[in-house]
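forwarding from the other thread:

> can someone predict this with phosphoenolpyruvate?

sure thing
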Amino acid sequence: MSIRTPLIAGNWKMNKTASEGAELARAIAASVGIESAVQVVICPPFTALASVSTAVEGTHLAIGAQNMHDKVNGAFTGEISAAMLRNLHVTHVILGHSERRSLFGEDDAFINRKVLAALEASLKPILCVGELLSEREAGTTQEVVRRQVEKGLAGVPAGKSDQVIIAYEPVWAIGTGKTATPAMAQEVHAFIRQLLTKQFGAEAAARIRILYGGSMKPDNADALLAEHDIDGGLIGGASLEAKSFVDLVRSAAKSLTR
Ligand code: PEP
C-alpha cells in the first residue's frame, strides 16, 4: 500500500462566478462527506475564492488557487500574492500550468520563484509539467519534463519537499479528450520520481504526490490511478460538475483498496 495519500484537485480555470462556485463547492462537499481517505482540493478562480472558502468551512475540502505572483506586495497591477491567498484560507496553489506557460509567457525561472514564494508562505505548490505533442513525437518528453522539474524545484529546501506536489499533464491531453494510456503516464511519473530522488533522496521522493492531468474522467480514472506512481489527478473539465468530480474522488479511494 502506498504511503502517499491520494489527492484529487479540481482546476476550474476561468469558470464559475462567486455564487456559482459556492453552489458547486457545497454540492461537492455534501457528496464527499466530512471524511475521506482522499485529499480533495478545489481551485476556483480568484473572484470565487472567498465565497468558496466560506462554503467549505468545516468540510473535508481544501481550497487551491490557480496562480499567484512571487512578490510579497507592490506595484504589480492585476496580480495576487501568497499572503492574500492565505488570508482566504487557501492552502494550495497551481503553478506553471501549461496555459500559463503557453498563453501568458511564464518561463521556468518565474515559475521557480513562485514555487519558492509559495513554500515560504506555507502554501503547497502544485507544479505542473508536461510535454507538447510535437515534443512527444520528437522523442523529447523526458528532456522537457526533466528541465521543468529541475528548474521548477531549484532551491527547494529538502525539509520542505513534502509540501510539494507535482502534476504531470501532457499538454496534448489537456481538454482534448485524449488521455495518456496508464502505461505512458506511469513511465513519465516513474521518471519524475527518479528526478525527485536525485534532488531530495529516496525517502523524501517516495512521499511526494505526483498527479496525472489531461482529460481524466470517471471512465478512465480507475486504470490511471491503479498505476504505482500515479497518486491522484488534476482535473479540468470533469471538475466543473459535482457528480463527475466526486466520482473521481471515489475512484481514488478505490485505488487504495487494490
Ligand atoms: C487541466 O487543465 O489541468 C486539465 C487536466 O484539464 P482537463 O481535465 O480538462 O484535460
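The mean pLDDT is 96. thats all i got for now
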